[in-house]
Amino acid sequence: MRVSDVLSSKGSATVHTIAPEATVSDLLEAFATHDVGALVVSEDGSTMVGIVSERDVVRKLRHVPDARSATVASIMTTEVLVCSPEDSFGSLMATMTDHRVRHVPVVVDDRLAGVLSIGDAVKHRMEQLEFERDQLSSYVAGG
Hints:
- The chain is built from five helices and five strands; from the N terminus they run αβαββααββα.
- The protein is an alpha+beta fold.
- It has a single domain (3-140), classed as CBS-domain, CATH 3.10.580.
């Protein structure tokens, strides 16, 4: 099982991005509009300069007096863990678990190809387990 399988089963390869100069107020609106917990920070919509998540908002804005006017660049994570479509699903899950990250951008030739969340990974794994269960049930039933 490869990352590409999870990405294709997701149904959409849309990568929602936000500019580094956008405000936290813009960021909160984008989270709500796109119903996501993280956005890739990009100046051109296809290359990545960072990622910003709900965790970044909570942890980095606690003591900022006018937090809504702070810029995304001031709170984004710049050392982003990424994967490629050829990576194994197991390595993606290990990365998410070991580094305690919930969103991993999928990158091909330094260009964004998608973003996978822990929810996408869990959903995919559940579908795998259900398929295996159905196959075993069919085998045991002799069908």
